[in-house]
Amino acid sequence: MNDRKVRSYMAYALGEILLVVIGILIALSINNWNEGRKEWKKEKLTIGILSDEIEKNLALTREDFIHNTQILDSLTLYLKGELEKSDEYEKALFISYTLNYNWGKLQYPTLAQELGPNRIIRDAPELSTSLKALNDAHIGVDFQLNYLNELFNNQTVPYLLDAGAGTGLINTMFQYNREASKLGSLYGTEALNNILSIQQLFLFSYNSRIGALISQSEETLETLKGL
């Protein structure tokens, strides 16, 4: 009888332990599922934010590309001697236009986050490769932009100041300035042509980088859509 009671108690105890273990496993499973669900929602939210970020920058880069292409076309005609202007105002307008290349500063905070150790979107090797390529394209644009800015600050501005044209005319509102004729008088001069020749070269390289950034942005957006 005692042995039977002991076995009965043991069976009961084992049953209780088994129930506790099963309960713990179920609780852990539910907890893991909840955590996984939270991570999934966080990833989806990050994908949306990253997509919006890229689309916003893509719109800016497309505008820059179109505007800079138009400037390059005008510079090509001018340097070939196929763009003749007689009016001083039109000459000044042309110079101001060609010196005002588009250089919108792009911001990629979410991209930087997803390339770091604290990234939220995981287990997506194809996306990681695409994001790295996008970041490289972005760095390439900034790198080439530095050449343009250095040209403007170190050569163009000193030249304009020495020529008496000033730098206040280098904007789209200078038509109300009586000094426009000073800028127009530089049209066709060898010194200006030398500066614009260098700018054409740098602007072409810069715009090519922008074109590469546009292509990579579109590719990355397609990759994000597939997640």
Quick recap of the structure?
By secondary structure, the protein is mainly alpha-helical. It has helices spanning about 1-80, 90-100, 110-115, 125-160, 180-185, 190-225.
Beta fraction of the residues?
Answer: under 5%
Record field, number of beta strands = 0
Mean residue pLDDT: 86
Helicity level, as a percent range?
over 70%
Main β sheet profile: none
pLDDT under 50 segments (min length 5)?
A: 172-176
The secondary-structure class comes to mainly alpha
Description:
The protein is mainly α. The protein has one domain. Helices cover about 75% and strands about 0% of the residues. The chain contains 6 helices and no strands. The longest helix is centred in the N-terminal third of the chain and has 78 residues. The protein is rod-shaped and about 120 Å long. It starts with a helix and ends with a helix.
Task: Considering the chains and any ligands shown, give keywords for the structure.
single chain, 227 residues, mainly alpha
